[in-house]
Amino acid sequence: MSARFDEAELRALTPGRLHASPPDRPRRSDDDLNPDARMIPEGEVPKPAAVLVPLVPRPGGLHMLLTQRQPHLTRHAGQVAFPGGRVDAGDAGAVAAALRETEEETGITRDFVEPLGFLDTYLTSTNYRVMPVVGLLRPGFVLAPQESEVADIFEVPLAFLMNPAHHERHAREWQGRQRHYYAMPWEGRYIWGATAGMIRNMYSLLYETP
C-alpha cells in the first residue's frame, strides 16, 4: 500500500471489494475479538442504523472525516464516531439515513457526498445493525457541528488508517471479564470500538484476499 492513499487508488480498489448494497446479515460485530466474552443480546431484533464513512480528497492524499461526541451524552460520551444514527421510517434506505444524519451532525449536505458502496453490516453491543456507507466528499463543504451531540470534527490520513501496523488490540475489563477491541490512537485521539472495527473491516475488504 502506498504511503499516500489518493482518490485514484481508492477508485481502483473499490469495484468488487465494497458491497453494492448493504448485506442483510451482519458480518462484523463488537464481539469479533471476544468469542468467550460475548455481550451482544441473542434473540432480540437489532435496530437498523447507518453511518457515513466520509473520505476527503486532500493534496497529501485522502483523509477520513470523524466526529468526537460530546462528553455529557448518556451513551458513548466523548467517543470518536462516524456521523450517523438510526434509520427512520421516512428514510429511503441506508444511504438516505446516513446522508440525513451526516447533514444534521456535521452540516455537510448530501450534494457534497458521492456514495461508493458499503462495508460489511456491523452489529454493535447496544444491538444496532449498522450499515456503513463509504462516501467521497467533494471539496467546498462547510462544517457546522451539531452542538448538542458533536464536540469536534477532525480528519485522519487514510493511509494511516489503512496500515495494519496501526490496528492495535486493546482490552478493558467489563463485568469482571476482559474484552478485546481494535484501537487506532492518532495524535491524541482514541479511535476504538465499533468505529475502529469498521475501519478494520474497510482495510480487510480492500486489501485482504476474499
Keywords:
alpha+beta; 12 strands; about 210 residues; 9-stranded mixed beta sheet
Structural write-up:
This protein is of the alpha+beta class and 210 residues long. It is built from four helices and twelve strands, in the order H-E-E-E-E-E-H-E-E-E-E-H-E-E-E-H. The protein has helices at residues 7-13, 94-106, 158-161, 193-207; strands at 28-29, 47-58, 61-69, 80-81, 84-86, 113-118, 122-123, 128-137, 150-157, 168-174, 177-186, 189-192. The strands form two sheets. Strands 1, 2, 3, 4, 5, 6, 7, 8 and 9 form a nine-stranded mixed β-sheet that branches. A three-stranded antiparallel β-sheet has the order 10-11-12. A hairpin with a 2-residue loop joins strand 11 and strand 12 (189-192). The radius of gyration is 16 Å and the shape is globular. The mean pLDDT is 92.
Question: Any chance you could write out the topology, listing elements then pairs?
Answer:
Layout: H1 7-13, E1 28-29, E2 47-58, E3 61-69, E4 80-81, E5 84-86, H2 94-106, E6 113-118, E7 122-123, E8 128-137, E9 150-157, H3 158-161, E10 168-174, E11 177-186, E12 189-192, H4 193-207
Parallel strand pairs: 1-7, 2-8
Antiparallel strand pairs: 2-3, 2-5, 3-4, 3-9, 6-8, 7-8, 10-11, 11-12
State mean pLDDT (0 to 100 scale): 92
How many individual β-strands? Answer: 12
Whole-number radius of gyration? 16 Å
Which oligomerization state do the chains in this entry correspond to?
single chain
Number of helices: 4
**DSSP strand content:** 35-45%
Helix proportion range: 10-25%
Principal-axis shape: globular
**What structural class results from the helix and strand content?**
alpha+beta
What is the terminal separation in angstroms? 17 Å
How can the largest sheet be summarized?
9 strands, mixed
Order of helices and strands: HEEEEEHEEEEHEEEH
Spans of at least 5 consecutive residues with low confidence: none
